[in-house]
Design brief:
It contains 8 helices and 7 strands, in the order αααβαβαβαβαβαββ. The chain is α/β, with parallel strands linked by helices and about 220 residues long. The chain has a 7-stranded mixed beta sheet with strand order 3-2-1-4-5-7-6, with helices on both faces. A hairpin with a 5-residue loop joins strand 6 and strand 7. It is globular. The termini are far apart.
């Protein structure tokens, strides 16, 4: 379930301890987690509670005023990022599902962050292209979070490089893919796409790269130029 451990190396007991010793989800976030749990097994697509707290912290840490999320699902990660933005901040959320994103929207309103969130239901590549057209040569965004279809990761990364300012941050979820990235017997399209993406960004001189074992693997990419 969405509020259980997603890191494949954590026991439930350690995960409970870990969440309890960070900033815990408040009542609004907890209600959204519970609402997502009602979807059944697919709720595993939601980021873990400690990852949500980290998203808020990182957004605040870099003083982000404009952010992009690719893959919103039921809106927990969007809630966490929006809470970290300045009062006049803006988060563009890219998703293709009205059904899933509708779960989170009442919780965004209860948290007072709905006005910060610009939800766009369309393929993310189309939304990113529209953002680039609007921005021109400017790169007005401070932070991005990628947590969507794995075969699209490379295209999303390349598009974001034209939108995120130098010194800005791109966060990429599921880069360990429950450990399958090191299992040569697994040759699915998603797994191979993640492997290729991980190999590419770790050697890309346009970004500083750190992969951390947060949840199912979270890569931090600081845009150099």
């Amino acid at each position: 379930m969405a509020d259980g451990p997603k890191s494949f190396h954590l026991s439930p007991e350690i995960h409970t301890y870990l969440v309890a010793h960070g900033t815990p989800p408040d009542s609004i976030a907890s209600d959204l987690i519970a609402a997502t749990n009602e979807l059944g097994g697919i709720s595993m697509m939601q980021v873990a509670p400690e990852q949500g707290a980290l998203l808020t912290l990182l957004t605040r840490l870099i003083g982000a005023k404009a952010a992009i999320e690719i893959g919103t699902f039921t809106g927990f990660s969007a809630l966490c990022i929006a809470r970290g933005l300045d009062d006049d901040g803006r988060l563009v959320c890219c998703d293709v599902s009205d059904e899933w994103t509708s779960v989170g929207q009442p919780h965004w309103a209860k948290a007072g962050v709905a006005s910060k969130i610009d939800l766009r239901i369309a393929p993310a590549t189309e939304t990113l292209a529209a953002l680039k057209d609007a921005a021109g040569d400017a790169r007005p965004y401070d932070l991005a979070f990628i947590d969507a279809d794995k075969t699209g990761y490379d295209a999303y990364f390349e598009a974001l490089l034209g939108l995120i300012r130098p010194g800005g941050l791109i966060l990429v979820d599921n880069v360990l893919w429950m450990g399958s990235v090191i299992d040569d017997a697994i040759q699915t399209d998603d797994t191979n796409a993640i492997r290729a993406f991980n190999d590419k960004v770790s050697a890309d001189d346009r970004v500083d790269c750190v992969m951390a074992s947060v949840s199912d693997g979270l890569t931090f990419l600081r845009v150099r130029r």
